[in-house]
Amino acid sequence: MKRINYSSGAPLEAAVGYSRMVKLGDHIYIGGTTSVQPDGTVYGETPYEQAKYIFTKMIALLEESGAGKEDVFKIKGYLTDMKFAKEVGDAFSEHFKAVLPLFTMVETPKLNRESQMVELELEAFAGCEV
Description:
Blueprint: E1 3-6, H1 11-16, E2 21-24, E3 27-33, H2 47-64, E4 72-79, H3 85-96, E5 102-107, E6 118-125
Helix pairs in contact: 2-3
């Protein structure tokens, strides 16, 4: 099975030595992703803005690998407060409501930076038929 590693351009990826996305055959995994921009700053002042940015970032990575949002079957969300669930759910629905993937959200005490409220992970299988 062929393995392909992808970067989103976030500075920490190169500094630490990890991939944002790994494609193993037709299986695609996007690791914990926050709204960090290529310049290292955090995008968005609300959980909705951060989640929307992250979903857009993830979809662009999927497309780079030859897949799309219709291939997504599982998303995990880590929120610094469960009161953000509605806003993150709204951003999720804008992108994935028609796809109906699994979606789990849990609360975590904190993320890498104080300004980060949302971190998301995604799994997909290229070539899914709905």
